[in-house]
Amino acid sequence: MSVDAATVRRIAHLARIAVSEAEVPHLQGELNAMLAFVEQLSEVNVDGIEPMTSVTPMDMKKRQDVVNDGEIADDVVKNSPDTVNRFFLVPKVVE
Amino acid sequence: MTDLISMTIAEARDGLANKSFTSLELTDAHLAAIEAARALNAFVLETPDQARAMARAIDARIAKGEGGPLAGIPLGIKDLFATKDVRTTACSKILGNFVPPYESTVTSQLWRDGAVMLGKLNNDEFAMGSSNETSCFGPVVNPWRREGSNTTLVPGGSSGGSASAVAAMLCMGATATDTGGSIRQPAAFTATVGVKPTYGRCSRWGIVAFASSLDQAGPIARTTRDAAILMRSMAGYDPKDTTSVDRAVPDYEAAIGKSVKGMKIGIPREYRLDGMPAEVEKLWTEGAAWLKAAGAELVEISLPHTKYALPAYYIVAPAEASSNLARYDGVRYGLREQGKNIIEMYENTRAEGFGAEVKRRVMIGTYVLSAGYYDAYYLRAQKVRTLIKKDFEDCFAKGVNAILTPATPSAAFGVGEKGGADPVEMYLNDIFTVTVNMAGLPGIAVPAGKDSQGLPLGLQLIGRAFDEETLFSLGEVLEQAAGRFTPERWW
After folding, report:
1. Contact B242 A82 (CB under 8 A)
2. Residue B266 CB neighbour total at 10 angstroms
3. Partner of B370 at 20 to 30 A CA spacing, among A91, B112, B166, B454?
4. Which residues, including other chains, have CB under 8 Å from residue B483's CB and lie 6 or more apart?
5. How far is B410 from chain A (nearest CA, A)?
6. Residue B238: domain span
7. Each residue of B287-330: pLDDT tens digit?
């Protein structure tokens, strides 16, 4: 399988990465090189094989349902590029 | 000063204990070495004030006889580990001036045990790379050079800063992370020892995530014993990481020097590649002979799905990365580029903040997870992963204790030499190491010899899950036979 220019633009949008028209052919070539490389997986017989979900077999531990963290709003917003009164600021989303 | 920096951790531990020198003296010697080695670009942030403060505090503790297993030992920390109040960037522009208000579990355990932080080490952006050339701080330089040549070589990656700094004696050991070979490949390129522990052995909490089902933290050090000392402090259960395993941490150092007599060592025939350099093949045979001479039994084994590990990895790892890196949106931390609306703001931020390799992987990951392609790519890759793991399980079920392979298909290469036209050329560096991550097993890379140009080559040992101790015992046998390798100081 390989991707065309329109697919490259669609993937870039899904991944929320701005891509200029000039970058598309280059990216298309690189993505197709990767897809050609992984193509060899189609020759493996995977009939009846379970997909791996956990590499180390283990029962997931559940923690106690208690509050064990919090009251750190200043820490949470400290690294944000734009805040006001402990709120994150973003461009207007709702008209 | 040179004496203070060329010691092993084990030797420094003795020197500190018998008061031959203080941690402050040891730390100062390393800070001076770092300053004199800026040409290597191994450190992206030096923290001398903090280092001296930590050293003074630990000297006071040592005086009271309350040192801890790593008391006073100066270490470097890969910039993927969150360090409280110390800038942590994953060497990506998108994290900008991120200053974590928390400490990763692994580093907090090092400080608990008395270690001293010298600074943050360079790595490939988000640990995506095999040469440390994708870092937003620029490439790291390998302290090793080809005989009679001034060509700048890469230290490997993604833990290139860790490997370079340890090899050049800028720190006594370093933290590193390994998703497809990022500890073992740079260790092999710099004649250092690198350990990728069993998945779940070390907590991933506070480490910038790349591919969560593959990422593991581990040490890079100058000897197998030093790596074992660091491992004991780094490993352990952490309730904050649900994939970390609740199992006692053994005294790994006790495995150093243990007899390997009667151990069955698998030699996998699928690792004998067409076009593999003769010297890599020769080293492999030599390594097997050393283990045999120590009493181990060699058996040829088959891992039939080996060739599919790298292609399956290049579906699974980018898929997980595309999901993990969705958090970099210009809102909560890091870089923000403005846009006409919120979507454009996201798109511009990520276009500006991510480097080329990261964009490529996020896009491939997005594609293989997108509607209509999930089954063909991602689901199939996860099934292949099951088969790769089963290959190893079948061998271990037949009594194989560990597997010996080359660590890398070649020695270190030049900056800008690989992957320019085709990204896959760079990916092939991890061909011997990536199977281990796919199967969640432990692996160790040990320096074993040099190629015809005088560059170090390493061997890899792969163990059963949670049997790092066997790897330390076998690694020590290789180290004793091969000797240690130190780069000539030119920087």
Report:
1. no
2. 23
3. A91
4. none
5. 21
6. 2-256
7. 999 999 999 999 999 999 999 999 999 999 999 999 999 999 99
